[in-house]
Specification:
This protein is α/β, with parallel strands linked by helices. Helix content is about 40%, strand content about 15%. A seven-stranded mixed sheet has the order 3-9-8-7-6-4-5, sandwiched between helices. The protein has a three-stranded mixed sheet with strand order 1-2-11. The chain is globular and about 60 Å long. Bound molecules: pyridoxal-5'-phosphate.
Length: about 400
C-alpha cells in the first residue's frame, strides 16, 4: 500500500475528529418507521425522510416482490443499451401525469438527476444563479457545468433575497442563457423558496428556472406533487427535480419538464447514459407508492397534522423552531458543541435526531433537526417532547 496515501488519510481523518466533523453511521436493525431499532436500542426516529411511511408499506412491498418474480432483480444494462424495461417507461408516464408535465426522465437518484441535468442544459456562454443554501447535489451539478456560477464572481444570491436575485439578473444580460436554480424546500431550515417571485423575475429577465423538489415531493402541492403545484405555477417552471428516495420511500430521482428536455437528457445526461437502470422492483414499488399518494389522502394528512402538532408542542415549551414552514423542524441550539451534546443526550433518552452544525449551516447556528412523519403516533410525539424537556433541564443545570 502507498504510504503517502495512507499517511494522508490518517492525518485527514484526525483533522475531522479535531474539528468535531467526524461521522459514523448508526445502523438500523428494523425497517424504517417512526419507532425503530438502531444500534441495539429502540428509539423514536426523527431523522428519516420517509415522510409518508411508504418505505415499509405492505402494498409497496407486495408490488416490489411481484416485480422480482416477473422481471428478476436487475435491469442488466444502462437505460439506452437495453436496460429500459416496460415498467421503467410506465413509471415515467405515471410521474409525468402526476406532475402535469409533458415528460419525466428517471435517474438512479436525486443526486444523479442534478449532476445529470444541470451541466447538460448550459454551455460556457451561460450563467447559473443559485440560492446560497442550495443542496450539495445542486452545487456539485453546477460545478460540473461549463457555465459561470461562482460566488466570488457574484452569481450566488443571499438566501431567498429577491432584491439580490434581481440585481444579479441585471448583471447577467450578456450571457446567452440565464438559469436560476433553487431548492423548493430547504433541507436544513424547512423553509419554502419564494417560487412565484423567482418565476416572475425569471420571466422579466429572460431566465429559466430549475427547482429541486426533493423535500417538497410528497409533502407540498396536490397529492404531494411539489412546489410548482403548491404555488399553482404549472407551465412556468422549466425544470423540476423530484426525488423518489424520500417521501416515495424507495430510491431514485427524476427530471420533469418538456418532451424536448427529456429527449435532450436521454442523449446528454451522463448518469443516465453511463449508469445502470433501476432494478425493476424499484420501479414497481414506486408505481405502488404513487397509487397510494394519488388515491389515499390519509398519509399526507397525517404527515401535516403531525408536523403542525409537533411544532406547536415544541413552541409551547419555548423551543425555537426557526423559520420552518414544512415538516422539517429545526430546534435552534446555537453552539456547535452544545448541539452535539444534545444529540447524544437525546439518543440516551430514546430519540434519534441529528445535530446540524457548521459547515452545513452557519457558525453559531447549530440546531437539532427533527423530521416528524406520517409514521409517528401521538405517543411518539409525546415521548419525544418529554425527552427534549429532560435534556434541556439537564443542560441548564
Ligand atoms: C436528498 C436531496 C437530494 C438527493 O436525492 P436522493 O434521491 O437522495 O439522491 C437532492 N436534492 C435535495 C434538495 C435533497 O434534499
Amino acid at each position: 500500500m502507498n504510504q503517502g496515501l495512507q499517511g494522508w488519510l490518517s492525518d485527514s481523518i484526525q483533522e475531522l475528529h479535531d474539528a468535531s466533523l467526524y461521522k459514523t453511521p448508526r445502523v438500523l436493525e428494523s425497517p424504517a418507521g417512526g419507532r425503530v431499532t438502531m444500534d441495539g436500542k429502540e428509539v423514536i426516529n426523527f431523522s428519516s425522510n420517509n415522510y409518508l411511511g411508504l418505505a415499509n408499506h405492505p402494498k409497496v412491498k407486495q408490488a416490489a416482490t411481484e416485480a422480482i418474480e416477473k422481471w428478476g432483480v436487475g435491469a442488466g444494462a444502462v437505460r439506452w443499451i437495453g436496460g429500459t424495461m416496460a415498467i421503467h417507461d410506465e413509471l415515467e408516464e405515471r410521474l409525468a401525469s402526476f406532475k402535469h408535465v409533458e415528460s419525466v426522465l428517471v435517474f438512479t437518484s436525486g443526486f444523479t438527476a442534478n449532476s445529470g441535468c444541470i451541466p447538460a442544459v448550459v454551455t460556457k456562454k451561460d450563467v447559473i444563479i443559485s440560492d446560497e443554501l442550495n443542496h450539495a447535489s445542486i452545487i456539485d451539478g453546477v460545478r460540473l457545468s461549463a457555465a459561470s456560477y461562482r460566488k466570488k464572481e457574484g452569481w450566488v444570491y443571499k438566501h431567498k433575497d429577491m432584491g439580490h436575485l434581481e440585481e444579479i439578473l441585471k448583471n447577467a444580460e450578456s450571457f446567452e442563457k440565464r438559469m436560476i436554480i433553487t431548492d423548493g424546500v430547504f433541507s436544513m431550515d424547512g423553509d419554502i423558496a419564494p417560487l412565484p417571485e423567482i418565476v416572475e423575475l425569471a420571466e422579466k429577465y429572460d431566465a429559466f428556472v430549475m427547482v429541486d423538489d426533493a423535500h417538497a415531493s410528497g409533502v407540498l402541492g396536490k397529492n404531494g406533487a411539489g412546489s410548482t403545484s403548491h404555488f399553482d405555477l404549472y407551465g412556468r417552471v422549466d425544470i423540476q427535480l423530484g426525488t423518489l428516495s424520500k417521501a416515495l420511500g424507495v430510491v431514485g430521482g427524476y427530471i420533469a419538464g418538456s418532451a424536448r428536455l427529456k429527449e435532450w437528457l436521454i442523449n446528454r445526461g451522463r448518469p443516465y447514459l453511463f449508469s445502470t437502470a433501476h432494478p425493476p422492483a424499484v420501479a414497481a414499488a414506486l408505481i405502488a407508492a404513487l397509487d397510494i399518494m394519488e388515491n389515499d389522502p390519509e398519509p399526507m394528512d397525517r404527515l401535516w397534522s403531525n408536523s403542525r402538532k409537533w411544532k406547536k408542542m415544541l413552541q409551547d415549551e419555548g423551543f425555537d423552531t426557526m423559520g420552518s414552514e414544512t415538516p422539517i423542524t429545526p430546534v435552534y441550539v446555537g453552539g456547535e458543541k452544545e448541539a452535539q451534546q444534545m444529540e447524544q443526550m437525546l439518543w440516551d433518552e430514546g430519540v434519534y435526531a441529528l445535530a446540524i452544525v457548521y459547515p452545513t449551516v452557519g457558525l453559531g447556528k447549530a440546531r437539532i433537526r427533527t423530521m416528524p412523519s406520517a409514521a409517528h403516533t401521538d405517543q411518539d410525539l409525546d415521548d419525544a417532547l418529554k425527552a427534549f424537556k429532560r435534556v434541556r433541564d439537564q443542560l441548564s443545570k
